[in-house]
Amino acid sequence: MRTSIATVCLSGTLEEKMHACANAGFDGIEIFEQDLLVSPHSPEEIRSLAAQLGLSLDLYQPFRDFEGVPEELLADNLYRAEAKFRLMQALGMDLMLLCSNVGTATIDDDELAAAQLRRLGDLAARYGIRIAYEALAWGTFVNDFEHAMRIVDLADHANIGTCLDSFHILSRGWDPAGIEKIPAEKIFFVQLADAPQLSMDILSWSRHYRVFPGEGAWELDKFMGHLVRSGYNGVVSLEIFNDVFRQADEERTAVDAMRSLIWLEERTSVHLVETDGPDACFPMQLATLPQVAEPTGFNFAEVKAENTEHVQQLLSQLGFTFRGRHCTKPVQLWTQGQARIIINEQQARGLEPTIAALAFDVEDPLVAASRALQLKATAVPRQSQANEAVLQAVKAPDSTEIFLCEATPDGTAAWTDEFATDGAARSGQDLITHIDHVNLAQPWQHFDESVLFYESTLSLAPRPSTEVPSPVGLVRSQVMRTEDGNVRLALNIAPLVMEQPGPSAESAYPQHIAFGCTDLIALARNAVASGLEFLKIPANYYADLQARFRLAPELLATLQELNLLYDRDDQGEFLHFYTATVGSVFFEVVERRRSYDGYGAPNAPVRLSAQYLLSKHG
Q: What is the mean pLDDT of residues 61-86?
């Protein structure tokens, strides 16, 4: 599949955008007219730079407000078009996008529109240029891709074809199955965009909220399936209008864009095999990726800081055992049950405690790492001695290191043998059994990128997002998880006022690791006896709790005494508590009774408020 991207998707100058697209691996670009107009470089210089970078110049766009006009205005439009054709010749381009008229059309007549397109085709042919006619979703008379194609058929000109744009088709609810009826040779270009499902005017939706494939609500693999069945074998391009992308680093955005196309190409291939069978053959060849099963669990979580004394104290108070220091690195291992926490003090000067790495149990780490790298993830370099385990790792969009470890039937990890125990093992039963879930704060600019990263590389499925009120604004939360719930990862966008300011992390939005346990009340009593101070929960919470659930007086008294939180639904009960925050990290312990599958969402505002008050008043 040949890939392209419109320069309007990225920040920066035209030249910076071109370098970013080439570095990300795109085959070509669409030049958005405004990017060229503000460039200090001549069209010939842009053409030369594209050749140096190995980029084809696939589409010049947009040409607007041409058809459906009186004859005197058509003459002006043809004059404008000829000027653009000469410019395109200097650029070495042969395809121009023509949007359906939204500003000057006054005549609703398909025959007239087709005749005017035919005249444009005659002019374009003299310059060796083709015209891709696109139905804008808000076009005055033409807003449907099938309507646009009927006009193209009426024009009956070799240099006039159509451009299909997923946004303009799916935002209006048009059935994309009609794509299969369009002759492949008349589909001159294809533009893709995903989008969240919003209720607003289509123009604003289009101009501000498009996202890359896999980051919105649409089933673009099915859209692509119709396109492939049509016999189309041309360029597949991205055209994304998004305020965030236009402010973000162009190199990073280009990589995110390329990842989305690689992911969509694989998803389309899988979709076609499922619907058309493995022997179906189409002109467009779709690449696939190494197939990986979803992770079976968390292998470990890593907290990094210059001074980890308070983190160690919290773990000890929760009943974790210090398993010793690594044989070659300034790293500690703490365990309880199959919950493993790495405490890392290397290269951490000035850094307050933060979640630096997560490790997942996977069936084949090498295959999983290969898939991640093909999806444009960055490998994490690690120095290992000859007798140390070689761990595969890549970097997530928020810079969290993601380790891919081999799953074992009994849940053990061979790398733990590299830690020499120099402390006495804790006696007694392990009440904490595993890592239940992890909550990571995400920069607002890269939230959608993170969701796609975890879905495409680790096969974690996104659940519907929620918004939780805090004292300083709404917190958006997106849970990514495996089907069986053995891996649960919550990605949160904090209000801007709580964004992480730097290595101190003193005012950062807190992240946490949640441990699953078998008896929360017993563990809480043990922790209190060890000196652990829980996050203080207000009395008003417990009064409301009793009003909602009519709890037994003894249970309610115990919850309030120990600052425990409670939730219940038709599937079961949920008990949990939180520790104080150290740096940007705190711990949660949860007990899921029966089949409770949530996270105590009604309690999140209580936690956020308590943390806010503690940060303000200590």
A: 97
